[in-house]
C-alpha cells in the first residue's frame, strides 16, 4: 500500500507542482488549502506525512502542527514544514512545536522529494 | 642693600663690626697712652692691652654665637613657621623651644598664629557654607551631564577641552587621551572640526544664524585618528555677544560606527539583490516566452530553453538564500536595545506580583546576559503571564533565563494548560498599555526579531519560550568596566578665557599645566640594569589635581624583580609578567605628558630612568622639570628632612598608607605638595617657572658644595 501525503498550502501554483511531484514519487496525495481543511483531512484519515505551509488561512501551520502533536493517535504522522519564513528563530519555533523537518522556499523539488522519502523511511529528519 | 641680606647675616656683620672696632679703638687708645707715659711702657701695654683685646674679641664672639643661636635663628625659624601657617598649612605647629630666651615673643607669636588659624577656619567655614548650595547645584548639573547618554565635550576656540562627560570617555574608549586643557586632536581627526568651526563662525559673524533653522548648531561626522571609530555629532557655538567673539563650542556625539556600517551594508545588499535578480528573471522570462510562443520549435531547441529555466531558477534560489542570510546578519533592529542582566529583568517582573496574592512568580536558575529593550519585554512577559493566569488557570509561575548558542531564552513555566499558537497569536495581537507604549505583543516581538511559543515539558508543565538576542558585548559576572573614582574633575571653564602668551619661563607657576609622576623600579641603579616596573602620573590644571585623568600602568621589566623591590612597592614578579613593556608604555606616557611641566619628588632619579629609555622609544622628554625636593629646600632650608613623607606631613597632605610607595599614591601626594609649595614660593618672591628653575639650580649648587666638605 502506498504511503499517503497531505499537502497543505494556499497557493494554487505551488500545489500544482507539489501534487504532481508527490504523485510521481508514488504516494497517495491529498490537498488542503487552509488549516481547517487540513485538520479535517487528518481527522478523516491520518496521512503518513504532512507537507505543511505556515502562512495559511484559518489555523496557521504552527497551530496545525501543535494540534497533530497534541493527539497521541497521530504520533506516527511526520510533519515537514515548507515555508517562505527563513529566520532561524522561526525554524526553531517550528521544530519546538513538533515538526520533523523544515524546508524554506524556494526549494529544489528533487531535494524536497528526497527529504520526504527519508522522513517516511524513518532515516532522516 | 642691607635689607636684602638675611637676619642672621646682618647680625653677624654687626658683631663683626664691633669685633673689629674694639681692638682698633683699644689699640689707638693704648698707642696714644704710650706716647704720653714715661719709661718703657710699650711691652706692658702690648701685653695687657693685647690680652684685654683678645678677651674682648672672645667675649664678642661668644655673645654673637649666643645671640645667633638664641635670637637670630629662633626669629628666622618663627618667621618661616609663620609663613607656612599663613600660606600653606594653618595647622602647622609653631616650635617655641628654640625661642625660649626671647621672653614672651614665642608665646605671643603662637597666640597670634592660633588666633590667625581660628580666624581663617571661621572664614573658611563661612565660605564653605556659602558655597555649599552652589556646590549642590553644581553637583546636580554634574550628575545630569555624567549620566547623559550622549558624549559631551566642550572646547574653547583653540580646540582645547574644557569639559567632557563619562559617556564621552566610554564612546571614545579612552581615559588617557582626553583631558582637560588638552588639545582635542590628541585623538580625533582635526579636519572636520576646523572646517565646521569655520563655517559656524562665519555664519555667526555674518549674522545669518538669527534666521538659520539650526541657529548656531550644525551636524558633523568625525573619526578617531586611528580610524577605529566613526562618530556623529552636533557642534554648537559658544559666543560672547557683547564683543562678537566665538569663545568655544559644545560637541555632542554618539558612536555610529556600527549603524553606519549596517546601513551601508543594507544599502549594498538591496542594490545587489535588485541587480542580481534582474538577470535570472530576464533570462527566465525570455525563455518562457520563446517556449510558449514558438509552436514550431523542435525538441532540441525546447530542451535548450528548458535547461535555461532550470539553471536560472536555481541561480535565483541561491541568490535569495544568500541575500536573506546576509541581510539578517547585517541589519540589526532599529529599536533601541541594550545589554541587560537577566536577573535585573526578571526581578522587575517579580516585583509586580509581590502584592498580588492570586499569583506567585519565582525566579529559578542562574542569571545571564541578553540584548533587548527591557521595558517592552517586561510588559510583554507580564501580559502573557496575566493572560495565562486568566485563561489557563495557572497560578504559580517560574521565570528563568538560559544562554543558548544563538539566543538567550527567557522561559516562563507554569503548571497548567499549554497555550496553543493560535491562542498566543490572539494574546499578542492585543495592544499593551502601561509601559508597552500601546504596542502589540507581536510588534514587540518583531522589534526583537523574535517569536514566542509554548510547549509541554516532560514533567507535565507548560513552558513559554521567548528567544532574545545574545548580548552584544561579552559580560562577566560583575560589571566589566572598572568604576571611575567618585569625584572627578570633568570640566574647567577658566580655560575658556585662557590665552597662552609669552615664553614658558615667564608664565606664572599657578597657571601652568603639570604632570606629576612617579616611577617604581627594581632598584636604584638604572645604569646597572634596574628597570621601571610601574609608572603613574596625574595632571594638574589651574591649580586642580585631575584625579580622573590619571595615568597608571604596571610595566614588565623583562627581568627579575628582587624581593626587596617587592617588599617596598608591593609589586611582585607575577604582577608585572605579561604586562606591556616599557617600549609600549613610554610613548603613551609621552603623549599623556604633552607639553606639560614634569614634576617628581627627587625628579633626577625618575628622569634618569626615562632618559635611558628615550632612544629605545625614539622620543625626547624635553619638557621643563621641577623637583619638589628642591622646591621644598628653597622654602624650608632650616630643615634637612625633604623626604616625601616629611614634606607631606609638613603640609598636611595625606598619603593613605595603602597607597604609599605605589606610583599613583606617591604621584598624588607629590601633586598635593606641589600645590602647597607654589603658594609658599610666591611668598619667597618666586612666581614664574623661570624663577623656580633658577632657584632650584642654586639649591643644587649649594648641595654640591656642601657635599664637598
How is the topology of this model organized?
The complex is a heterodimer of chains A (125) and B (709).
Chain A: E1 4-8, H1 12-24, E2 28-32, H2 35-44, E3 49-52, H3 61-70, E4 78-83, H4 88-96, E5 101-104, H5 109-121
Parallel strand pairs in A: 1-2, 1-3, 3-4, 4-5
Helix pairs in contact in A: 2-3
Chain B: H1 7-36, H2 42-87, H3 105-147, E1 151-156, E2 161-164, H4 166-172, H5 191-205, E3 217-223, E4 230-240, E5 245-255, H6 257-293, H7 299-330, E6 338-341, H8 342-353, E7 360-363, E8 369-372, H9 374-391, E9 396-403, E10 407-414, H10 421-429, H11 441-447, E11 453-456, E12 462-469, E13 514-521, E14 532-541, E15 544-554, H12 563-569, H13 573-576, H14 582-593, E16 597-600, H15 603-617, E17 625-627, H16 628-635, H17 644-650, H18 663-683, H19 689-708
Parallel strand pairs in B: 7-9, 13-16, 16-17
Antiparallel strand pairs in B: 1-2, 1-5, 3-4, 4-5, 6-8, 9-10, 10-12, 11-12, 13-14, 14-15
Helix pairs in contact in B: 1-2, 2-3, 6-7, 8-9, 14-15, 16-18, 16-19
Amino acid at each position: 500500500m502506498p504511503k499517503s501525503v497531505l499537502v497543505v498550502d494556499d497557493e494554487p501554483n505551488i500545489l500544482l507542482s507539489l501534487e504532481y511531484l508527490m504523485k510521481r514519487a508514488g504516494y497517495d496525495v491529498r490537498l488542503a488549502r487552509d488549516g481547517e481543511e487540513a485538520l479535517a483531512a487528518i481527522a478523516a484519515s491520518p496521512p503518513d506525512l504532512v507537507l505543511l505551509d505556515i502562512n495559511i488561512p484559518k489555523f496557521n501551520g504552527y497551530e496545525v502542527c501543535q494540534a497533530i502533536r497534541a493527539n497521541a493517535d497521530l504520533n506516527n504522522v511526520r510533519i515537514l514544514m515548507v515555508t517562505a519564513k527563513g529566520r532561524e528563530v522561526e525554524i526553531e519555533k517550528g521544530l519546538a512545536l513538533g515538526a520533523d523537518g523544515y524546508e524554506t522556499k524556494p526549494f529544489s523539488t528533487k531535494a524536497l522529494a528526497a527529504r520526504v522519502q527519508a522522513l517516511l523511511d524513518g532515516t532522516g529528519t | 642693600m642691607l635689607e636684602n641680606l638675611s637676619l642672621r647675616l646682618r647680625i653677624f656683620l654687626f658683631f663683626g663690626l664691633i669685633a673689629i672696632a674694639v681692638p682698633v679703638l683699644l689699640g689707638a687708645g693704648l698707642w696714644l697712652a704710650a706716647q704720653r707715659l714715661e719709661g718703657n711702657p710699650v711691652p706692658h701695654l702690648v701685653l695687657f692691652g693685647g690680652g684685654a683685646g683678645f678677651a674682648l674679641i672672645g667675649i664678642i664672639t661668644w655673645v654673637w654665637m649666643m645671640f645667633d643661636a638664641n635670637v637670630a635663628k629662633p626669629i628666622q625659624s618663627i618667621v618661616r613657621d609663620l609663613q607656612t601657617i599663613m600660606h600653606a598649612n594653618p595647622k602647622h605647629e609653631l616650635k617655641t623651644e628654640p625661642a625660649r630666651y626671647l621672653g614672651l615673643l614665642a608665646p605671643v607669636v603662637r597666640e597670634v598664629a592660633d588666633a590667625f588659624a581660628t580666624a581663617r577656619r571661621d572664614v573658611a567655614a563661612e565660605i564653605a557654607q556659602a558655597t555649599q548650595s552652589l556646590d549642590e547645584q553644581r553637583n546636580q548639573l554634574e550628575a545630569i551631564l555624567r549620566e547623559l547618554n550622549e558624549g559631551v565635550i566642550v572646547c574653547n576656540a583653540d580646540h582645547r577641552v574644557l569639559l567632557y562627560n563619562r559617556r564621552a570617555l566610554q564612546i571614545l574608549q579612552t581615559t588617557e587621551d582626553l583631558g582637560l586643557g588638552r588639545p582635542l586632536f590628541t585623538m580625533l581627526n582635526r579636519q572636520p572640526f576646523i572646517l565646521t568651526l569655520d563655517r559656524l563662525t562665519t555664519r555667526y559673524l555674518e549674522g545669518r544664524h538669527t534666521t538659520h533653522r539650526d541657529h548656531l548648531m550644525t551636524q558633523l561626522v568625525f573619526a578617531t585618528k586611528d580610524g577605529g571609530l566613526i562618530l556623529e555629532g552636533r557642534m554648537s557655538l559658544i559666543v560672547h555677544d557683547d564683543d562678537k567673539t566665538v569663545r568655544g563650542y559644545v560637541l555632542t556625539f554618539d558612536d555610529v560606527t556600527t549603524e553606519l556600517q549596517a546601513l551601508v551594508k543594507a544599502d549594498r545588499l538591496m542594490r545587489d539583490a535588485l541587480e542580481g535578480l534582474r538577470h535570472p528573471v530576464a533570462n527566465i522570462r525570455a525563455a518562457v516566452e520563446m517556449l510558449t510562443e514558438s509552436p514550431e520549435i523542435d525538441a532540441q531547441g525546447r530542451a535548450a530553453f528548458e535547461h535555461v529555466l532550470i539553471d536560472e531558477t536555481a541561480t535565483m534560489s541561491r541568490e535569495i538564500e544568500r541575500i536573506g542570510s546576509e541581510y539578517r546578519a547585517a541589519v540589526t533592529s532599529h529599536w533601541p536595545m541594550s545589554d541587560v542582566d537577566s536577573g535585573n529583568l526578571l526581578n522587575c517582573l517579580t516585583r509586580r506580583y509581590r502584592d498580588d496574592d492570586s499569583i506567585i512568580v519565582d525566579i529559578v536558575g542562574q542569571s545571564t546576559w541578553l540584548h533587548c529593550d527591557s521595558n517592552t519585554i517586561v510588559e510583554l512577559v507580564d501580559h502573557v503571564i496575566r493572560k495565562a493566569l486568566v485563561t489557563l488557570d495557572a497560578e504559580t509561575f517560574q521565570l528563568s533565563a538560559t544562554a543558548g548558542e544563538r539566543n538567550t531564552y527567557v522561559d516562563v513555566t507554569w503548571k497548567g494548560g499549554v497555550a496553543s499558537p493560535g491562542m498566543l497569536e490572539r494574546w499578542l495581537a492585543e495592544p499593551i498599555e502601561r509601559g508597552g507604549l500601546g504596542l502589540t505583543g507581536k510588534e514587540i516581538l518583531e522589534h526583537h526579531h523574535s517569536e514566542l511559543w509554548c510547549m509541554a515539558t516532560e514533567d507535565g508543565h507548560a513552558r513559554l519560550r521567548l528567544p532574545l538576542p545574545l548580548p552584544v558585548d561579552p559580560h562577566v559576572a560583575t560589571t566589566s568596566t572598572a568604576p571611575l573614582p567618585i569625584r572627578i574633575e570633568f570640566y574647567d571653564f577658566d580655560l575658556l578665557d585662557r590665552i597662552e602668551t609669552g615664553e614658558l619661563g615667564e608664565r606664572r607657576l599657578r597657571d601652568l599645566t603639570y604632570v606629576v609622576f612617579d616611577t617604581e623600579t627594581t632598584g636604584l641603579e638604572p645604569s646597572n640594569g634596574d628597570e621601571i616596573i610601574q609608572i603613574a602620573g596625574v595632571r594638574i590644571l589651574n591649580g586642580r589635581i585631575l584625579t580622573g585623568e590619571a595615568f597608571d600602568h604596571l610595566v614588565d621589566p623583562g627581568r627579575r624583580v628582587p624581593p626587596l623591590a617587592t617588599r617596598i612597592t608591593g609589586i611582585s614578579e607575577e604582577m608585572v609578567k605579561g604586562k606591556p613593556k616599557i617600549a609600549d608604555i613610554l610613548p603613551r606616557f609621552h603623549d599623556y605628558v604633552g607639553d606639560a611641566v614634569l614634576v617628581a619628588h627627587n625628579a633626577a632619579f625618575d628622569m634618569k630612568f626615562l632618559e635611558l629609555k628615550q632612544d629605545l622609544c625614539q622620543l625626547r622628554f624635553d619638557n621643563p622639570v621641577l623637583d619638589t625636593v628642591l622646591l621644598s629646600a628653597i622654602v624650608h632650608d632650616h630643615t634637612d628632612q625633604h623626604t616625601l613623607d616629611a614634606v607631606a606631613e609638613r603640609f598636611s597632605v595625606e598619603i593613605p598608607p595603602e597607597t604609599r610607595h605605589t606610583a599613583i599614591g606617591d604621584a598624588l601626594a607629590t601633586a598635593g605638595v606641589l600645590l602647597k609649595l607654589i603658594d609658599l614660593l610666591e611668598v619667597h618672591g618666586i612666581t614664574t617657572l623661570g624663577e623656580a628653575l633658577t632657584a632650584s639650580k642654586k639649591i643644587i649648587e649649594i648641595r654640591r658644595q656642601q657635599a664637598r666638605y
